[in-house]
Amino acid sequence: MGSGSEPGDGLRFAVLGPVRAWRGGEQISTGAPQQRALLAVLLLRGGRTATAAELLDALWGDAPPNTALAALRSYAFRLRKALGSETLVTDSGGYAIRIPVDALDATMVEQLAGEAEKIRQADPAQARELLVSALDMWSGEPLAGLPGPYAETQRVRLAEWHLGLVEVRLELDLELGAHAEAVSELTAVTVEHPLRERLRALLMLALYRSGRQAEALGVYADTRRLLADELGIDPSPELTDLHQRILEADAGLAPPQGTSGPGAPEILRPAQLPATVPDFTGRSAFVRELGAQLAGASTDGGVMAVSAVAGIGGVGKTTLAVQVAHDARENFPDGQLYVDLQGTSAAPSEPEAVLGSFLRSLGLPDGAIPDSLADRAALYRSTLSGRRVLALLDNAYDAAQIRQLLPGTPGCAALVTSRVRMVDLEGAHLVDLDVMSPEESLLLFTRIVGEERAGSERQASLDVVAACGFLPLAIRIAAARLAARRTWTVSVLAAKLADHRRRLDELRAGDLAVKATFDLGYDHLSAAQARAFRLLSLPEGPDISLDAAAAVLDLDRYQAEELLEALVDISLIESAAPARYRFHDLLRLYARERAESDESQEERCAALSRLLDFYLCSSASAYALENPGDRVLDHLAPTRHPGLAFTAREESLDWLFTEAQGLLAAVQQAAEGGCADFLRRAADVLLAAQELVESGVYARQYEQAARALVNSAQDTGETLVEGRGRFWLGLLLNVSGRFEEAEEESKRSLILGLSADDPVACSYAPNLRGILALRDLRFAESADYLTSALEAFRADGNRHGEAAALSNLARAQLELGDADSALAAADRVVAIYRELGAGFRLGNGLYSTGVTLTSTGAYDRALGCLTEALGIFRSVRQRLWEGLTLYRLGRLHLAAGSYRQSASHVEQSLVIMRDIGGEWRTANSLTVLGQALAGMGQPVRAHACWHDALATYTALGSPEAAQVRRLLDGETGAGSASGPAAGSGPGAGTAEEPGAAAGSAAAV
């Protein structure tokens, strides 16, 4: 810009907002508005000289005052003094500003936008990043507050430029697959610019790609009406064509293949195959047969190929399948998926969970993945359409487990392994894998122990592999033992195997053959290794951490790690990740058999007891860090063995969510395992790990554990445990929207708590009962329960609980018309949590206070509370609460008449609710979104939202259906604070929120 000379001392200027100047990091005063207007004129001329006449016209127009020229010279003098004579120069009777191009925000935006346009086709993601950087340079209205005709003209030009760049960036968002995320912004910007058809088209396309066809069609109908009313014209041919294509569900409108939203992980070609074994041996006929099947699937364009390999455990099904899959990778350039389906475990993998993992690996964000198995399977097949992907489905339970996991499209293939011969898997190429031939077995043994040792004792080597029954897994274990003991000869090993008790007599179905093979390896373990092998097989979790394993073994961390790594080295356990370990399913079964024969019942229960203590102490430490001073920890069962002590909240959250599956499995095992004195501690683990409930994660496992606990406590007559267990079960049912069941469980919890004189159930259960009564609009009854809970918490000295009950009571008081008491209680809640230094619970308190303030019309204070709560929930990974807070912000803005902001927040809430919030809360969000859209003048799209909400409420039998019908019939003020979102319908006096757990401060 200008001469290109460097501005003095690093000058920078901004015109895309208020006109400002900086030298270095310090802002320079640019004077009065008229003086800043002169500066803007000179900056926007790109270094070209402006004559005095041109400047007079720019600042004053056709009628400058008599003093205008003198004033102009005065402004120029002051600016030269502030900026330096080398920057503001006099030239031919006029003035010019000479600065580098990167010293003015407007010229930087020109450069970034130009570069984005150049690379858009080749690299749309980078082009989008450039546009984001350009748009970030705007800081409000361009040339804000400047007088004069020139400033006014430039404001219009710069605003139009800005809008054009926003359109291009939104186009790129859709090209990159961020259609769901773009809906909120497009909704807002179309309200600001209602006649801009390109923005309307982008909104229609984003809605359609998000599976919201009815809303997309509603946008067109609203646009056509608006254009007719305002301009007397019809929509453009382009918009009309898009409308028709949406009606016809044109496949060309689908998101481009291989796209993901900006900022999303670009895992578009998954490469998940496990590593091949370096000593893979033999199986050449099977490799050719399976390889030909996979090659044909990728080249002949026929139906999707399925090959299923069956055989007994340990015969090498996975090893063969992995080798074949690696050999075929070049035939499947779009990726290879892998999953261990846990077919021989007590809990085989659920197909919907596997599909969720596959879809994420293929680039889909969590918010785009539906809940049901059928919807996930359909999306999976659609995502793979047109791609060439191989899916290796290892260790399947049966054909039913894998049917929905098959790609289903030509060019793709599935390779399945299972102990079951899948004759009922339609169209599958079946392969029965038998044991190795003697020659292959000897070659495998030789590759592991070394040519020198095996070759020098060939007959002994043949005796060894024969004693192993030519079963690959048995051969590997025997060879590994020999390789690890350099003083042994092959003859020594062969002599040990001569005993028929340690040799496979014949191949039979599954476990017997595998057991004989495993005995071979087990008998070579040291006493400490064998004990670890036995005891570590007892916990039910999918894997186990090093710290938890140390607790099971009653060793310190370093001693435990030494034993575990030794077992990894000889392939008796696997290292799933650093400091995490797991058993192969067959080895776990074998190890448990040895534990039952070699360990007493007392020692087996002692090992599981130490694990339960570990989980209880560690989760209590995590809870205490998040909830300082909470007295509920005083009511936990005593433990004999320690857990982890956390010093940072982030560390404790990492541990809790990483260990969730193992922790909940331990609770269920304690409830069902038959060891004495486990139930009380198991119940208290659920108490200390309660944040798993409110996060919306692991709900199914938590419910299974709670139900098992309740059933066992009921059988054994442990009233206190049953009361606590029923409370946690009731809380979980409330979270999942099963309110009638939650009501029954909370009622029984309270009765049991009173019978056992348990301060936990006697305070938490009435709190939950008050929440549920509030949802059912039984306000006086709710206040009674919550007052009882408040008294119980105070009697126990539990200030966290006191704050929770107060928060919920405030909501009841508000509904009963006592707004002053409600506000006083809400303020007291936040004060208590701040005084205690609470984290997550402070968010609960702020949330509830914000809802109370919203209902009283104190919108500014409510906005502050809810905004702070949102930041807290995001920081502690409480995604369900994040979604609920966004929903409440949407209702706040709706009540205040800010429909665009309302729609924006509820759109964001919908992404989360559809993922983990359940159908009922999703319907609540749709109802409020419809009201916001109606307020924005988009009745067709609003009705589409209400119809979806009504369908859900009707299916669930929810009373909110009547309120939505009134909205659809026009009986309620859609888009106004008098509708359901403001106190009389869905979400008003209802429990969208999980409710009060141990100190949770939100009821409705």
Report the biggest beta sheet as strand number plus sense, adding barrel if it closes: 5 strands, parallel
- Tell me the fraction of residues in β-strands, as a range: 5-15%
Widest beta sheet: strand line-up? 7-8-9-6-10
Poorly predicted ranges: 2-8, 260-267, 501-514, 974-991, 994-1004
Shape: globular
Quote the average pLDDT.
Answer: 84
Query: What's the oligomerization state?
Result: single chain
- Total helical segments: 43
Structural class: mainly alpha
Query: Number of DSSP strands?
Result: 13
Structure description:
The structure is a single chain. The protein is mainly alpha-helical and 1004 residues long. The chain is 60% helix and 6% strand. It has a 5-stranded parallel beta sheet with strand order 7-8-9-6-10, sandwiched between helices. The protein starts with 10 loop residues before the first strand and ends in a 35-residue tail after the last helix.
Features:
mainly alpha; disordered C terminus; globular; five-stranded parallel sheet; 1004 residues; 60% helix
Topology (elements, then pairings):
Layout: E1 11-14, E2 20-23, E3 26-28, H1 33-43, H2 52-60, H3 68-83, E4 88-91, E5 94-97, H4 105-119, H5 124-135, H6 149-175, H7 179-192, H8 197-209, H9 213-230, H10 237-247, H11 284-299, E6 305-310, H12 317-327, E7 336-340, H13 351-361, H14 373-384, E8 390-396, H15 399-402, E9 413-418, E10 429-432, H16 438-449, H17 451-456, H18 458-467, H19 472-484, H20 490-497, H21 511-522, H22 527-535, E11 544-545, H23 546-553, H24 557-569, E12 574-577, E13 580-582, H25 585-598, H26 601-626, H27 649-658, H28 660-672, H29 679-688, H30 691-694, H31 699-716, H32 719-735, H33 739-756, H34 759-775, H35 779-795, H36 799-815, H37 819-836, H38 840-856, H39 859-875, H40 879-895, H41 899-935, H42 939-956, H43 960-969
Parallel strand pairs: 6-9, 6-10, 7-8, 8-9
Antiparallel strand pairs: 1-2, 2-3, 4-5, 11-13, 12-13
Helix pairs in contact: 1-3, 4-5, 5-6, 6-8, 7-8, 7-41, 8-9, 8-10, 9-10, 9-42, 11-12, 13-14, 16-18, 16-19, 18-20, 19-21, 22-24, 22-25, 23-24, 23-26, 26-27, 26-28, 26-29, 28-29, 28-31, 29-31, 29-32, 31-32, 32-33, 32-34, 33-34, 34-35, 34-36, 35-36, 36-37, 36-38, 37-38, 38-39, 38-40, 39-40, ...
